[in-house]
Specification:
The longest helix has 35 residues. The protein folds into two domains: 212 residues, no CATH class; 168 residues, Hypothetical protein af1432. The protein is built from 20 helices and no strands. By secondary structure, it is mainly α.
């Protein structure tokens, strides 16, 4: 549990205590114990397959337990699968506990609502369409509980500001869990039918096929990401002075995007934009990238072609979306003094304005052949001084708030040892990377 922040551990402990209180009310009669045991084994098998292919949860069996069992018994269904660490991984105890109590609390709440609305009788009597009402309410409650728990943990761990910890979580989970809820309801109805549990297993076949298709999509996306990683490593090998710079610009871009309240898809896009912003340096002669002295005007013009080179390199990677615009325009300046096209103000895409701030911030806090690393506070002061002229004040403010809340670990990226700066080098500069 050492790798988990103390407040997050407290959140996990509180959830575990609440789950234990739910389990204390386990019924001692009128429950055929083979049912929760069979559902738990089935859920464990499904989770094993799904987690090997996808980083997700298989809800049909979980919801079938909510529709079939009393709430405390339903809460037992996810425990055997999630208390065990994934194959090949050694998860911290707090993470394993969280993966167990999170679905247990959610399915317990869903089962309570389902029973209160008469869903048990509707399932036994195959009473359609009335059975859809309590089942839909149970799905909604399950999503609400998951949202409450996930947002609480995000806030406790300091991943996002508390006021934004729950933003978008419910909307993203509702549709996929609702589809799984229909499959879970079909399982429950067949389970209580004369055909028994063996017929209920047939419902899992189309769900497994859909998971396989989704896994194919994720494998394709992983292949794209591997290609991106290879491009970044090639840049790092070519430009030793900026080794690791791309990764840190991606991290800083994520901090800004989250502080601005962007949804997870845009945050991921901004991460890719930050990581790939300098990929065009593969088209720049190595001697210019590693030159210790000042650049001549002709050499600077060659360097300034790297955003266009980068844009051409990633043009065919469709899932990058607006990240391609960030790669092309991350050296534009608000007052029109940037390159390659001299765009100004709102002409510069929002994603490019974010990456520009992240790039300048890491450039100032990293030692290179032509500049020594500045303290974080000095870099923040310089960004604030240039806000409105070079950088978007909104993006600068977001980065400053995020850095002061979450901290930042500046890294010396030059292969050469640090040196004492001359008075000319101490002159104010915004840290724009070559």
């Amino acid at each position: 549990m050492d790798a988990v922040p103390a407040r997050a551990r407290g959140c996990v402990a509180a959830a575990a205590l609440l789950a234990a209180l739910c389990l204390l009310r386990l019924p001692t009669s009128h429950v055929p114990w083979w049912e929760p045991c069979l559902l738990a084994a089935l859920y464990a098998a499904c989770e094993h397959v799904v987690r090997r292919r996808l980083d997700g949860t298989f809800y049909p069996v979980l919801l079938a337990g909510a529709f079939l069992l009393p709430p405390p018994a339903a809460a037992l269904v996810p425990l055997p699968a999630l208390l065990l660490p994934p194959a090949g991984h050694r998860a911290a105890l707090s993470r394993r506990v969280w993966r167990a109590v999170r679905p247990a609390l959610a399915v317990c709440g869903a089962a309570h609502v389902h029973r209160a609305l008469g869903g048990r009788d509707a399932v036994v009597g195959s009473d359609f369409p009335y059975a859809l009402l309590p089942a839909g309410a149970a799905v909604l409650v399950l999503c609400l509980v998951l949202t409450l728990l996930d947002g609480g943990l995000r806030a406790a761990a300091g991943l996002v500001p508390p006021r934004r910890a729950w933003r978008g979580l419910l909307a993203r989970s509702l549709a996929p869990v609702a589809v799984h809820g229909l499959a879970g309801l079909m399982m429950a109805v067949l389970w209580r039918s004369p055909y028994g549990p063996s017929a209920a297993l047939l419902v899992l076949l189309p769900m497994c096929v859909s998971c396989w298709v989704f896994a194919q999509y994720h494998r394709e996306r992983a292949a794209h990401q591997a290609t991106i990683r290879a491009l970044v490593q090639a840049v790092d090998i070519k430009d030793g002075y900026t080794r690791g710079h791309s990764e840190r610009v991606g991290q800083a871009s994520v901090l800004i995007a989250r502080e601005l309240g962007m949804d997870d898809d845009r945050v991921e896009t901004l991460r890719f934009a930050g990581i790939l912003h300098d990929v065009g340096k593969l088209g720049v002669p190595t001697r210019l990238l590693r030159k210790d002295g000042p650049l001549t005007p002709e050499e600077r013009r060659i360097i300034e072609l790297h955003p266009e080179y980068g844009h051409e390199m990633v043009r065919g990677i469709s899932f990058l979306g607006e990240a391609r615009a960030a790669i092309l325009h991350h050296h534009e300046r608000l007052d029109g003094s940037g390159y390659p096209y001299g765009l100004a103000g709102d002409q510069i895409p929002e994603c490019a304005r974010i990456v520009a701030v992240a790039d300048a911030f890491d450039a100032m806090t990293s030692t290179r052949s032509y500049s020594r690393a500045r303290p974080v506070e000095a870099a923040v002061t310089e960004l604030e001084r240039c806000a409105g002229a070079h950088f978007d004040p909104r993006m600068v403010g977001a980065l400053v708030r995020a850095v002061r809340r979450c901290g930042w670990r500046p890294t010396v990226t030059a292969d050469e040892p640090a040196y004492v700066m001359t008075p000319a080098e101490r002159a104010p500069r915004t840290g724009a990377a070559r």
